[in-house]
Amino acid sequence: MEKVRHFSVLGDPCQNLQSPNQILTKMTQDIEMKEQLVAHSDSISSVSPSTLQHLMDIYGLIEIGAYAREVRRIVRAIRWTIQLRKKLSATVISSFLDFALVPGSEIHSRLSSYLPKATNPGDKHDMEVDTATSAIQTPAKISPEIEIYCYLLVLIFLIDEKKYNEAKACSTASIARMKSFNRRTVDILASRLYFYYSLSYELTGHLAEIRGNLLMLHRTATLRHDELGQETLLNLLLRNYLHYNLYDQAEKLRSRAPRFEAHSNQQFCRYLFYLGKIRTIQLEYTDAKESLLQAARKAPMSALGFRVQCTKWAVIVRLLLGEIPERTVFMQKGMEKTLHPYFELTNAVRIGDLELFKAVADKFSDTFSADRTNNLIIRLRHNVIRTGLRNISISYSRISLADIARKLRLDSSNPVADAESIVAKAIRDGAVDATLDHANGWMVSKETGDIYSTTEPQIAFNSRIAFCLNMHNEAVRALRFPPNSHKEKESAEKRRERQQQEQELAKHIAEEDEDDF
After folding, report:
1. CA dihedral (463, 468, 474, 477) positive or negative
2. 481: left (phi over 0), alpha (psi -120 to 50) or beta
3. Hey, how many other C-beta atoms are within 10 angstroms of the C-beta on 47?
4. What Rg do the C-alpha atoms of the chain give, in angstroms?
5. Which of the residue ranges 288-297, 324-333, 401-410 would you say has the lowest mean pLDDT?
6. CB atoms within 10 A of CB 55
7. What is the pTM of this model?
8. Burial class of residue 92 in the structure, from the number of CB atoms within 10 Å of its CB (0-12 exposed, 13-18 middle, 19+ buried)
9. How far from chain centre, in Å, is Cα 60?
10. Is the dihedral of CA 253, 255, 261, 262 positive or negative?
11. Residues 224-280: pLDDT tens digits?
């Protein structure tokens, strides 16, 4: 195997001095040579001798991105790392740390202490490591990007191995170390580090301990104009507040935090989901419905758990608005079993049967408690009564309040008085088109007119047209073009490179990182 030669930007001070143009030319040549060695395949999933060699390729890609200040290479390195998650082992990571860091240094000793000791020295990974590390030379100087990447790699491995206490200690040390760096090429790695930092504390049940630190990191990211870091930290703070039901604090933070164009689709989907939950608790159901449906639509197909959560909340919000979700919502691929309790709940609300609603709520109370939707389901009781009353008003031109109380199965001490107040409120809110005769104690329904003579069809068409226009505008805003593409004529080589990058990006968008949700 041919050994990759590492380069240095500064060069050897003992060599003869060169002009700046010569230094820049040599550096560009080194970068191009190394890029050819690293990017020889379209994807990390192509046939390759070992996982360690892939990590060494990623190391070279991060070095190129750091020296050339190209963030896209750092993004590609992270994407390749996510694809390698299932192949990582303690032996492979330990050998990579020996390759990327100085053995015996403080950071090397600290990261190695988090890794479990190898129990089977003769396994396949060790054989690959012995072959790949036969001619490794440790670089003399470690860049901040490589150092943070090593922290990130160890942290991902510890979380996958369910060693949450070690992951918590590793994430704390990585955040403390990262605070001393202020480089744009580190921002991409830092945003991932923030995510796993919060995840490790959440898995150990100490999420409230890092709230102050997250606020400080968000303030630092704002001062450094790190917009991706601001997005990530804002979502982590919102998740932190909502985890402890601190909806007022979450709304205050969200309303006062600076807003800008979204840089990450995953972070934007999370933000819409948290915004929908806040709006639901604040009784702003229309805005909540729009945010939740948009989050579910924008989420990648691989993020099944995230889309299920969005759908659960969207179903309840639509029920609170008086709408009945279509059956196809509950029959989506992979969601049938998890959405079954909400399908039963929707059926009870659609029929307007209060007894059936109570039976469903009691039957699936554990599921609703785990989803934290119990309080919202309690609100649905009034909607069930209103739906039943609407069905009664359509079926009867005149009906007594006692019969209404019996059909709605009101179990209060004075059901007739409760039925009268429910009817009066429904008439005032426009839920039923009827009049209340208090003297005779009955409800008189008005004749149903032609709905097409009203403005309701126009309002429905207007909402659909506005939805399509908004989707079109978002798609146009999401378009990305290469810089100075209208000024320069690209060569055949640049065209091939651009097409290769577009194919990688399309594949990345199609698959998406499952760990992001």
Report:
1. negative
2. beta
3. 5
4. 30
5. 401-410
6. 26
7. 0.74
8. buried
9. 29
10. positive
11. 888 888 888 999 999 999 988 898 998 998 888 877 766 778 888 899 999 999 999
